[in-house]
């Protein structure tokens, strides 16, 4: 199925307008997407459903990213970045060309932290020299109650981003994140997400037929949103109703 990106762009504009944003004058920032390429997602790629979702989401990126593209990151047990961002000109057959036959390792398990670090390295290089991957990805595990220990301020085990992280000079980033399963590296993921809490970055987490306790709890206290869709095969209106939330709209209005 070929997605009409122009139509998706019009629908995204309508949903932005519903939340008080002028589609012709939205804040310009960078847009990326993290795509789950674990084994359970294989059919969604081979049957064209991820391709359709990317076409829809390009409608949103066209309003927000000044260059009208999305950087594409992939994750299973490892993280990779596609060589070419997706844009209106190369969107046709993007998944088949750049992901399935793009020379990437695919269809493994599910870990979130590697792709979170990959996004930091790409958009906020000022974090890279602080060895974020080693210092913040959880070499000193805390056992028992780590969700409350890391997400809630009263815990002595709270993992904070180092005070020495410089103020980012990069543009704001909207990062979409599609996954159909919980990760196997929860404590590493929490540390990675906590490290970027002060960045001009909004995580739009989309659970595909799965309610992530971890992502939902993080979204409750951060510049992030978690929404659950029953499946990835949704139309423009259903997708934008979920992704363009009041919380995302309020964040966009800051810029």
Structural write-up:
The protein is of the alpha/beta class and 255 residues long. Helix content is 38%, strand content 16%. It contains eleven helices and seven strands. The protein has helices spanning 5-18, 42-46, 49-64, 94-100, 113-123, 132-136, 146-151, 186-195, 213-220, 236-243, 246-252, and strands at 30-36, 69-75, 79-81, 86-87, 173-179, 201-208, 224-229. Strands 1, 2, 3, 4, 5, 6 and 7 form a seven-stranded mixed β-sheet that branches. Helix 1 (5-18) packs across helix 3 (49-64) and helix 1 crosses helix 10. The protein is globular, with a radius of gyration of 17 Å. It starts with a helix and ends with a helix.
The major β-sheet equals: 7 strands, mixed
Give the overall pLDDT as a whole number: 85
Low-confidence segments, given as residue ranges, are 130-168
Question: Helical stretch count?
Answer: 11
* Spatial shape: globular
Head-to-tail CA distance between termini:
36 Å
Strand content: 15-25%
From the helix content, strand content and strand pairing, which structural class follows?
Answer: alpha/beta
Number of strands: 7
Helix coverage percent: 25-40%
Order of helices and strands: HEHHEEEHHHHEHEHEHH
- As a whole number of angstroms, the C-alpha radius of gyration is 17 Å
């Amino acid at each position: 199925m070929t997605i009409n990106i122009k139509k998706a762009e019009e629908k995204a504009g309508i949903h932005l307008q519903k939340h008080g944003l002028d589609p012709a004058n939205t804040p310009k920032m960078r847009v990326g997407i993290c795509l789950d390429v674990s084994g359970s997602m294989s059919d969604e790629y081979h049957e064209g459903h991820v391709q359709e979702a990317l076409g829809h989401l390009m409608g949103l990126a066209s309003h927000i990213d000044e260059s009208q593209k999305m950087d594409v990151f992939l994750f299973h047990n490892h993280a990779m970045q596609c060589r070419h961002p997706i844009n209106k000109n190369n969107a046709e057959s993007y998944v088949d060309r750049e992901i399935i036959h793009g020379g990437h390792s695919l269809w493994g398990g599910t870990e979130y932290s590697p792709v979170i670090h990959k996004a930091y390295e790409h958009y906020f290089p000022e974090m890279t020299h602080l060895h974020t991957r080693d210092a913040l990805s959880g070499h000193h595990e805390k056992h028992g109650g780590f969700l409350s220990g890391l997400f809630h301020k009263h815990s002595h085990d709270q993992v904070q981003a180092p005070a020495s992280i410089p103020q980012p000079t990069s543009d704001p980033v909207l990062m979409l994140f599609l996954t159909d399963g919980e990760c196997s590296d929860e404590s590493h993921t929490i540390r990675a997400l906590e490290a970027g809490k002060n960045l001009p970055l909004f995580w739009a987490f989309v659970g595909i037929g799965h309610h992530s306790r971890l992502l939902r709890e993080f979204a409750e206290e951060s510049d992030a949103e978690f929404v659950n869709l029953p499946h990835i095969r949704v139309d423009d209106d259903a997708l934008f109703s979920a992704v363009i939330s009041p919380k995302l709209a309020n964040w966009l209005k800051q810029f």
